[in-house]
Design brief:
The chain has helices spanning 3-16, 105-108, and strands spanning 19-26, 35-43, 46-64, 74-94, 99-102. By secondary structure, it is α+β, with helices and mostly antiparallel strands.
């Protein structure tokens, strides 16, 4: 996914369905530093949400642990300062359970 393609998708959704809510969020340290843009609209499957997530590329993962009883395990991620990973996720609102359900890409043509 590229920034240009994301902009095309946003324009298409705005033109065909109208946007109910659009917000950009900073991801927490636990989720990995980056940004997430959420786009909520009413589409052919009902209320839908698209997320465009930008995070630094993970280069390495270091695990620190000890074999002693009761010790903690730490995972440290080494990320790139220049390279970013971009992805889009689609969700559908489920009225019965009042939460977002992830849509598999093949089901909506991505």
């Amino acid at each position: 996914m590229t920034d240009d393609r994301w902009q095309e998708i946003k324009d298409m959704v705005k033109k065909n369905f109208g946007i109910l809510e659009n917000q950009v969020l900073d991801l927490s340290e636990r989720e990995g530093k980056g940004t997430k843009e959420e786009l909520i609209f009413t589409g052919p499957m009902g209320k839908m949400k698209l997320e465009y997530i930008i995070k630094p590329l993970v280069l390495d993962k270091k695990t620190t642990y000890s074999k002693r009883i009761g010790s903690d395990t730490k995972v440290e991620y080494i990320t790139s300062d220049t390279e970013k990973v971009r992805r889009m996720e689609a969700y559908k609102w489920n009225e019965a359970s009042d939460n977002w359900e992830k849509i598999i890409g093949e089901a909506i043509g991505f």
